[in-house]
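Recall that a protein's primary structure is simply its ordered list of amino acids. Everything else, from secondary elements to tertiary packing, is in principle encoded there. The following example makes that idea concrete.
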Amino acid sequence: MEESKNRTDNSTSSNDITPRATGIGGIFFFTENPKETREWYAKNLGLEVNDWGSTFESRNISNPEEINSLQWSPFKKGDEYFLPSKKDFMINYRVQNIEALVSKLKENGVTVLDEIASYDYGKFVHILDAEDNKIELWEPI
């Protein structure tokens, strides 16, 4: 209980706009057969799946009214969405203040692969980490 209290006390306020990652927004990985993989996870682990995978929802401990989601998605092995990374996975990080974060990343010499794109469900941009793993950054609406 004390550990939980300390985590809560050290969290940022809902007014914090520091450009940073705030959580994991998605886990994407290659598989030979995405449909069979989704079906296996549905049958054996009870995931509610659709054509894109499965969405897990959780509440923000600092702001219980806020519901966050994590997207779990198997991709067909070799899908170009992961390029230029040669890895079999990609992680999506939920972020805040994406514009300022991208500016900070550029100042730090991080490779930013594209411009920030806006959709009904948030803003996205892709970067490479120090080992050339493609990372997706997502600022939800």
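DSSP finds three helices and seven strands in the chain. The longest helix spans residues 34-45.
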